[in-house]
Amino acid sequence: MLALLLSVNILNYVDRQIVYALLPLISSDLHLSDAQAGSLASAFMIVYMLAAPPIAWLADSRGRKPWIAAGVGIWSLATGAAGLASGFISLFFSRAAVGIGEACYGAISPAFVAERFPSEKRGSALAIFSLAIPVGSALGYAGGGKLGEILGWRHAFWVVGLPGLLLAAVCLLLPNDKPHAATPAPVDGYRAVWGVRSFRLMTFAGAGMTFALGGFAVWMPTFFHRSWGLSVGDAGLRFGAVTVLAGLTGSLLGGYLSDRLRRKNRHADLVVSGWGLLLGMPLAAAAISAPTFHASIACLFLAETMLFLNMGPLNAAIVSVIPLEKRSMAFAANIFVIHLLGDAASPALIGWGSDHFGLTAALLSTCLALGVGGSMCLLARADFAGDSDAALPPPAGARA
Fold first, then answer.
1. pLDDT per residue over 254-303, tens digit each?
2. Rounded to whole angstroms, how far apart are CA atoms 219 and 360?
3. Nearest-angstrom CA–CA distance, 198 and 322
4. CB 200 within 8 A of CB 194
5. What is the pLDDT of residue 400?
């Protein structure tokens, strides 16, 4: 089950990120400004975050497997449709449709995975599941850039969209999970989830991280292309290689550290996540302002390693403070807020900043969001223990 959902999640990030490796080719062909190019990411994120809350409530109350399978099929068809775009508007709406499919998966699959592992192994399990972020992103950047150079950007979309239809069929073989009879009405459920203070702070932490990472994901290949004279294919390949190596290192290390430290420190997930973000901030700034390409690559690897430490631990912390019957809703609320305050806006804002002040200055200002995210993680420790105890199911035989 974990291997299948990891494979699907890898494809999730391939389809999500490939457009950014292809941006120079798409912009040249369709005559897009940087602001228009950045808004393609915003189109996906806005739909993704708006679709997640109602889908998550339906999945918690009626079962998750059908939504997972349907979501994979929808986003794969929408990815292929991007290759048929005749201009900015049609490309914009095809990327928005990808957000509908990925909302079905992103809001549901972390809870589906977490519920099948005991708490002492949950950080590592979710870290493995989160390996899809660097691996899929790297394949999207590196493979997308090379496919774009060899086949053209339209064919690149078709090549990566096709495997999703097969994986959607395989997802129908996942084990059935029973709907939760205790799932509250949507408004009551989301009000209860948002009422958990540590969850709110963790969500704001995720927003800070997502603001920065979302902006970097869109614009770093273009930054390499413009600042260091790399071809589109080489820029995507190098950024993808750094991302996959740092992501594998950071995700596995973060899951291992949090599971190990949790034996002595109940706040281990938040400590690992918070300090990773705080240490990643100056390293990211160094990568953007480095005097040589090799120094930029080295700092980028260290920065991404620190940022990826939180991928498993922060999700595990969210699971810990939310009751079973509301977990998909919690991840949906998390998705909504982190993208509303994060990468729904940052790519377009960076594009606007690039048009007016230059891409380097726009990317440097984005690093400040990482400091905000790290601080929110550390602040969440004050309420984490009490919120975790409140989320535990009542003892067997206890009255409601």
1. 988 988 888 888 899 999 999 999 999 999 999 999 999 999 999 999 99
2. 10
3. 10
4. yes
5. 43
In the chain, which stretches have pLDDT less than 70?
Answer: 177-184, 394-400
From the CB of residue 182, how many other CB atoms can be counted at a distance below 10 Å? 12
Give the Cβ contact number of residue 261 at 10 Å.
17
Predicted TM-score of the model (pTM): 0.73
Q: Which of 24, 6, 44 is nearest to 214 (CA)?
A: 44
Q: Which domains does the chain have, with CATH numbers?
A: 2-174+185-391 (1.20.1250.20)
Half-sphere exposure of 329 (CA within 13 A, CB side): 28
Q: Tell me the pLDDT tens digit for each residue of 5-55.
A: 899 989 888 888 788 778 888 888 888 887 788 778 778 878 888 888 888
Closest CA to 288 of 242, 335, 225, 220: 220
